[in-house]
Each structure stands twice: as structure tokens, then as C-alpha cells.
Amino acid sequence: MTGPRNEQLKAMPDDWRRALAVVAHPDDLEYGCAAAVAGWTDGGREVAYLLATRGEAGIDSLEPSVCGPLREREQRASAAVVGVSTVEFLDHRDGVVEYGVALRRDIAAAIRRHRPELVITLNHRDTWGGVAWNTPDHVAVGRATLDAAADAGNRWIFPELTERGLEPWDGVRWVAVAGSAQPTHAVDATAGLERAVRSLLQHRTYIEALTDEDPETYVRSFLTARTEAAGERFGGTPAVAFELFGR
Is 91 left (phi over 0), alpha (psi -120 to 50) or beta? Predict the structure, then answer.
């Protein structure tokens, strides 16, 4: 076969200093791109996390009032493993996040606060490719993030943000989408893979509810398979793949 799915992935741009990763739930980044984050923070770059929810509806056996704080703690511990100390939550309701003006405003406000050059999010399309259906939260947050990257630079879209002291930030140069079935770029995952494994393992409560498999075996197998698959289009080097949108 020939075509875009077999083309070699380009290296992600590296001429930036600050990134903001915006996703729907705890563990989204750990399943998606923690190995890349580890490499970036090793290189002295600043990465902050913004989560739309606390994942409180994610474990059937736990009431949301118990699950939310637990998953927040696991997310903060997970981020620390890959060198991320800033983790913020927007408190949208898990499972029913709505794409719209309110979500765009919240994300635009965070972009104005953090002033990133690179924004990272998760797959915003209806499927993961083929027949694997995506969740409404991922779609809503991914689409809103792509839009908010531009909203953040326009003082007339959300003038109330300026009134709150959040001046427009038009410095977002790229939005990188992890988990895309149409990746264009990649980051070498070799140095960060072990920390990515440890980072995802911090979500132990969720993983143990998800599978009967040994957590470390499950995590290592999943992340190794993902990075090796991306590496087939990145010169044979294990990689984290992104679909990169420029601005």
C-alpha cells in the first residue's frame, strides 16, 4: 500500500520553550504522549497540564465524590514522574463535557495564563481510525482546544478575559494532536519510555478497574506497542506520534 499512512513522520518542531497540554480526563496524556513530555522536560522545556474533568465518572465501583479526588491525586503524581508540576482542572462534568463557548473560553483563558507556543490535545475526531468510536468528551475538548488556540489571541472574542487581566496571547504556533489516526509528526520516545510506563502506572486504581491483567504488564505492553508502531514510520525509532496543525 502507498499513501499518507505509509509516509515517514516528520520530527516535531523543537524551537519552543512552553507547552500547554489540554485533555478531558486523568490518564489521557499518559495513554497518549507522556514519553514525549518526559523528553521535553528533560530538555528544559516547560509543560503544564489542563484537564477539563477530574475523571469522576470513570470507575463504576466508585461514587464520583470519591473517584474524582482520587483520580486527581493520581494525575498529579503521574505528571510529576515526567517533570510536570503544574496540573489544573476546569471542573466540567466527566462524561458530559459539551463543546461550545464556555469550554472554548475556559481553555482560551488557560492559554492566555500560560502563554504556550505549543498546545497539545487528544484526538478530536469521531473515531480512533476504523470502527473504534471516540468518546464525546475527547471530541469536545480536542475541538475546543483547536479553536481556543486562535480565540486566545483575539481580544474581541472573549473581552471578559481581558477585563480579568488576561491579555491576548497570539503566540501559539502549533497544536499537536496525540492519538490521531492521521499523524504527521513524531517525537523520539526512547529516553522517556520508562518514565512513561511509571507515569501511567500512577493511575493504578483506574487500570485495576479496567483490566484483570497485571498493571505493569498491561501498561508496558500497551505503550511499547504504541511507540513501536509509530516508530515504523519514524526511521525505526520508538516514537510518540502527533497530527500537527500550524497557526
Answer: left
Q: What is the pTM of this model?
A: 0.95
pLDDT tens-digit series, residues 138-192 = 999 999 999 999 999 999 999 999 999 999 999 999 999 999 999 999 999 999 9
Cell representation of residue 169: 496571547
pLDDT in tens, 210-236: 999 999 999 999 999 999 999 999 999
Nearest 10 degrees: Cα torsion 224, 228, 234, 238 = 30
Which residue from 120, 92, 117 is spatially nearest to 106, judged by alpha carbons?
Answer: 92
Q: Crossing angle of helices 193-201/215-231, nearest 10°?
A: 140
Nearest to 57 by CA among 25, 83, 20, 94: 94
* Cα radius of gyration rounded to whole Å, the chain: 17
Q: Which helix (H) or strand (E) holds 146?
A: helix 136-151
Which strands form 239-246's sheet, in the order they lie side by side?
A: 10-11, 185-188, 239-246, 174-178, 118-122, 18-23, 46-51, 87-89
Name every residue whose Cβ is closer than 8 Å to that of residue 32 and which is 6 or more positions away in sequence: 23, 122, 178, 179, 240
